[in-house]
């Protein structure tokens, strides 16, 4: 094949990302923390907004944790498999060059190009994971958008027959419980919560992965030029100012506003104030503990368990008739803000490795199948060899299993 048919780097529209300023490691850490704070607030706000939108009278699905876990899994699946949004110069160019060449060639070289494209994709994704923006979107936004503790809370309410017909998460905390049911109905309720949440989240994650694969075929056609140092300073300022603004709003509404307004907005503001703390605790816990075991995310597991315990304690304390409205709003903020961001859905955490897990299972099944086929083939050869060996001498005649029919009448004739 001629060289004219093969795509080159110069023929591919690419993203140009120029670094106009050097950035140190401490400044990069500040940049990452600032992005985690911003996206934790945005993720919590999105989660509470979905809770408010999906909590209404006679709702077909009365546990709202399904909706934000579904949306978070979709976004997480898209970000994990994306090869367009996060640009790193030659990595993006190299990957898209492989895509163009793969579309133009065929035959035996196609297999080699597939291997080359997978290598380029792995290099790009490895480089992508070190991006502060990627950490902020996945760990910050998706981790705060999804909540394992809320899923466990809804599962407990289902098995205890306490799922409300109407639950206003932001304003009134009054509950409208259904009539009591027997134990069998409660078991079916918690089973429905688990099955619906798991199946829909898996489907949403796979849909996000497929959408990313479709968009990966398109070539980037825009240019990005920025100064890393200026971007870090600006992001840190926005993160700190937004967090302080939320705290000042809480103080202002509590001391200088009416009690009705604070009752309506207090739990939301407390949730947004506690959200960055939960996100940062989960981030550093996972950073230090996830590497202890190769196939088990110990840090994420510890965050989920501790966050669920704190949510259970806060849920019980909130219903004790002691203290005023501020205490109830603080406990509600701990549940939705701190615990919601401290615990991330195990689905989004483990589905990120779903493709590699499926590949490993497929390879294992293929090896088992080949092993069984080899054993059957070896056993068949031994049986055939055994049939040709003499097993009986009678009247100077050699009788083998191949010559013998296990028909009783013929066996009698042979022995005569």
Explain how this protein is built.
This protein folds into two domains: 306 residues, no CATH class; 49 residues, no CATH class. The protein has 14 helices and four strands. The strands form two sheets. A two-stranded parallel sheet has the order 1-2. A two-stranded antiparallel sheet has the order 3-4. Strand 3 and strand 4 form a beta hairpin. Helix 2 packs antiparallel against helix 5 and helix 6 crosses helix 10. The N terminus is likely disordered. Fluoride channel required for the rapid expulsion of cytoplasmic fluoride. Belongs to the fluoride channel Fluc/FEX (TC 1.A.43) family. It catalyses: fluoride(in) = fluoride(out).
In short:
Belongs to the fluoride channel Fluc/FEX (TC 1.A.43) family. The chain is 70% helix and 4% strand.
Strand order of the largest sheet: 1-2
SSE series:
EHHHHHHHEHHHHHHEEH
> What is the structural class?
mainly alpha
Overall average residue pLDDT: 74
Quote the distance from N terminus to C terminus: 76 Å
Lay out the secondary structure:
Elements: E1 17-19, H1 25-54, H2 65-81, H3 90-104, H4 108-128, H5 132-145, H6 148-159, H7 183-216, E2 224-226, H8 228-256, H9 259-289, H10 298-318, H11 325-342, H12 346-351, H13 354-387, E3 390-394, E4 397-400, H14 408-415
Parallel strand pairs: 1-2
Antiparallel strand pairs: 3-4
Transmembrane segments: 30-54, 66-88, 131-152, 187-208, 229-256, 268-289
Family: Belongs to the fluoride channel Fluc/FEX (TC 1.A.43) family.
Membrane topology: Multi-pass membrane protein
């Amino acid at each position: 094949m001629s060289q004219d048919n093969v795509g080159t780097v110069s023929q591919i529209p690419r993203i140009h990302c120029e670094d106009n300023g050097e950035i140190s490691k401490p400044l990069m850490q500040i940049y990452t923390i600032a992005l985690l704070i911003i996206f934790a607030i945005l993720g919590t706000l999105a989660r509470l907004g979905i809770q408010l939108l999906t909590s209404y009278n006679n709702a077909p699905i009365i546990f709202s944790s399904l909706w934000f876990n579904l949306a978070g899994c979709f976004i997480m699946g898209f970000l994990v498999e994306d090869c367009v949004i996060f640009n790193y110069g030659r990595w993006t160019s190299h990957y898209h060059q492989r895509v163009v060449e793969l579309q133009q060639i065929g035959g035996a070289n196609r297999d080699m190009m597939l291997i080359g494209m997978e290598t380029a994709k792995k290099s790009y994704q490895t480089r992508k994971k070190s991006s502060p923006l990627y950490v902020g979107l996945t760990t910050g936004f998706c981790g705060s958008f999804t909540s394992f503790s809320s899923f466990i809370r809804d599962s407990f309410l289902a098995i205890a027959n306490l799922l409300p017909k109407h639950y206003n998460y932001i304003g009134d905390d009054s509950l409208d419980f259904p009539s009591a049911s027997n134990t069998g109905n409660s078991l079916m309720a918690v089973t429905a919560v688990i099955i619906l949440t798991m199946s829909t989240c898996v489907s949403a994650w796979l849909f996000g992965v497929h959408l990313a694969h479709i968009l990966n075929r398109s070539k980037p056609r825009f240019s990005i030029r920025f100064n890393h140092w200026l971007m870090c300073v600006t992001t840190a300022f926005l993160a700190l100012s937004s967090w302080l603004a939320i705290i000042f709003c809480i103080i202002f509404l509590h001391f200088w506003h009416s009690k009705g307004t604070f009752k309506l907005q207090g739990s939301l503001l407390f949730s947004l104030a506690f959200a960055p703390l939960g996100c940062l605790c989960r981030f550093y816990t996972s950073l230090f503990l996830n590497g202890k075991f190769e196939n088990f995310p110990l840090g994420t597991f510890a965050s989920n368990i501790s966050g669920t315990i704190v949510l259970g304690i806060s849920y019980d304390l909130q219903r004790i008739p002691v203290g005023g409205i501020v205490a109830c709003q603080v406990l509600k903020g701990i549940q939705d803000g701190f615990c919601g961001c401290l615990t991330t859905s195990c689905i989004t955490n483990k589905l990120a490795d779903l493709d590699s897990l499926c590949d490993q299972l497929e390879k294992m099944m293929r090896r088992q199948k080949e092993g069984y086929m080899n054993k059957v083939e070896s056993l068949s050869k031994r049986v055939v060899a055994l049939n040709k060996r003499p097993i009986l001498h009678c009247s100077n005649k050699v009788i083998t299993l191949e010559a013998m029919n296990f028909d009783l009448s013929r066996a009698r004739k042979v022995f005569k």
